[in-house]
Structures are given as C-alpha cells and as structure tokens.
Amino acid sequence: MEIIDVNAIKEIIPHRYPFLLVDRVISFEKSKSAVGIKNVSANEEFFMGHFPGNPIMPGVLIIEALAQTAAILSNLSEEKKYKGVAFMSIEKAKFRKPVVPGDQLRLEVEVTKKRNTVMKFAGLAKVNDTVVAEAEFTAMMTDREE
Description:
By secondary structure, this protein is α+β, with helices and mostly antiparallel strands. The chain has helices at 6-12, 59-77, and strands spanning 24-29, 33-39, 84-95, 104-115, 118-127, 130-142.
C-alpha cells in the first residue's frame, strides 16, 4: 500500500488546519484497520495554553486524532463516499503518558463491529511503541460535513 499523505487525507475527510490531526496514513486494510501518523510540533496552537512552560497535548485531541484515522479508514472502505463521520460514543478512554512537542503519534485503529453506516472501533495511540492513550468509540458515516 502506498502512503496516504496529508493532501490525499484532505480529499477523504473535511478537517482542515488547525484541526486536521493526521499527517499521513502508513497502513490500511479495507474494513479492518489503519495506522495514521501525527507529528506533534511545538507550533501547535493548543500548546500556548495547555500548559505554558509544560506543553502537553490534550487527551481529547489524541482521541480526535484516532477518530480522524478511523474516518479515513471508514471512507476508504465504503463504495459510497460520505462527507463526514460523527462520534456517537467514546468508551474506556485511558491516558497513560503525556504527549509533548517532538513526539510522533502512531494512531492504530481497528474496526470491531459494523452495522450499515455505524462502526465501532478500538484505538491505540503510541509514541515509540509505548501506549500513551486508548479508547473504544462508535461513529456514524453521514452525508453532512461534521
């Protein structure tokens, strides 16, 4: 599989800077799994206030990065192309280690259940093979940009 770069990602999901949180997809198996990469830069806007002198990537944005990776997987897996993917639930979210400027997040998502346009995922976020966050989440493919 060829790497899906940020320009191709912008054709697949509607997110844009500063809220596009996936830089590339390095692995993809249709309807099963995907691995995305997020390069965490000191220039990210959220670091200005989270926290001055001790920048930490907000956990909710790590979960969002996992969800965006899942949205890419979902759209690449379907015959029909949807405009958006909307969260329905987030469960079992755990944050194990802080993510700081200079880290590279590896965003691993796997489809655990699918019914029509609703998909359930298991997600792991890693830095250097160490799990920094994990969650299970459910999302629905929509014809609206969310």
